Amino acid sequence: MSRLRDWFRDFGVRIRLSAALAVMFGLMLLVSVIGLRVLDRTEVWMNVLHRDTLTEVAAAMDLSRDASDLATSAPFLFALFAPYQLEQEVAKVMANLDRVQHSSESDPALDLPLSRLRSAIEDLAQALLPQSARQAELKAIDRALVRLNARSRRMARDTALPLEARQDWSALQQLTAVALGAARAEELIELGEFSRDFQRQSQALRSPEPEDQRRTFDEISEVVQRGTGLFVLKHGHLSARLDAESALFRIRQETHRVNAFAETKVAQAEDRLSRARAATSDTLAYARNAFLALILASLVVAVTSSFYVSRHVARNLERISGAMRRLASGNLRVDLPDAPTSRDEIGQLFTAFGVFRDNARKLDRRTAQIRHQNALFSRVFQNIKDGVAVEAEDGRIIAENENLRRLLRLPPGSDRGGDRMSDLVQASPFSRAAGGRSAAASRNTAMRMAT
């Protein structure tokens, strides 16, 4: 591991970043290729599955829809009492049943439910066809009984009649009320109770003495016995309604069985779809795991690259730039702890900074030493009581103490004499006092006086 780390440190920043980008590009390309391959295979498989199951599912849905239409249209026969309308609706229901039978494709499992459905529809039609005539007769009887009941009530309330006659009229009113209750009964038990009450009250009013009461009683008896009789007619009406309700119950029950058969077919198709979905899910799960692994690898590469750029490159550059600014401002004590040991550009930059800082420190120490030596020399040079001058090789004065011009009788700070020693001597009073002496002798004398 240490060898690998040392080997990795030998690479530069550009090579590292380029390698990271190349790895990320390769991973993304691999993810794209795998995704396209898996999606193409899944699409082909789903097309085959769709072609194999679409026909069966469509047939099951048609069967369920036709059966639902049959169960929905059958109860509307209750509201139809006109024979021609009832026959038309029965024909429509039978046509619906034929479509259901055709949708079943002669499946043996549906032979018995469809036969029962046909029988129940025929029973429903047979029970409802006579209802129109029964309903008309019952309405006529009801109207006649209402008229007789109103007459009996009016006579029973006539205060001009004797009390006994009014009581007889009240009994006739109760008799018509019982007959009306029978005509409007909704249950067979209720109809039987009205029938017993009517017979009992009729026995009590068998032969009323007044002519008008006897005539009213005869009219009531005639109305009740019209045709097959009120009670027989009402009994047939209620029985037919019960038969129709029973037929409707059988229709709903058999329709439920047909729908259950259709649901079974759909469930079988769904089971095949589920198995195909499971196989497809396995393939997609494998592809998803591969995607996740490759994406995770790409994420690791991206995070590592960003961490490398942030921590190794940007952070170290910021540290070096800050240290260089402090070093340029004169802070030679600046230091960079935890310097990277890699041999890339960042490591070389840290090494170069260390060399530059050490050179700056050496230069500063050398400058301080020279400054100290100059200060010592200047102090000694200025404290010499004789006049001292330092000449360069070309004869120019590069340094002199304060006593030089005073000994040469030259005013301090004067520009006379120039920047050469011979010029200073010639400008001094010693040179003028010597007169005809040679310049060389005068200069030597002045120099001896100065030294």
UniProtKB/TrEMBL annotation:
Known catalytic reactions: ATP + protein L-histidine = ADP + protein N-phospho-L-histidine
Record keyword Kinase present: yes
State the GO CC annotations. Answer: plasma membrane
Q: Tell me the lineage of the source organism.
A: Bacteria, Pseudomonadati, Pseudomonadota, Alphaproteobacteria, Rhodobacterales
- Any one Pfam family match given in the protein's UniProt record, by short name: HAMP
**Domain annotation HAMP: ranges:** 311-365
Name the residues that span the membrane. 20-39, 290-309
A GO MF annotation of the entry reads:
ATP binding
Q: Please name the top-level EC class of this enzyme.
A: transferase
Q: Where is this region: Disordered?
A: 427-451
> Where does this protein reside within or beyond the cell?
Cell membrane
Q: Where is the composition biased (Low complexity)?
A: 431-443
| Keyword Membrane (UniProt) | yes
Cross-referenced PROSITE patterns, in alphabetical order?
HAMP
Which keywords does UniProt give here? ATP-binding, Cell membrane, Kinase, Membrane, Nucleotide-binding, Phosphoprotein, Transferase, Transmembrane, Transmembrane helix, Two-component regulatory system
Q: Which protein are we looking at?
A: histidine kinase
Which InterPro entries does the record cross-reference, listed alphabetically?
A: HAMP_dom (IPR003660), HssS/ArlS-like (IPR050398)
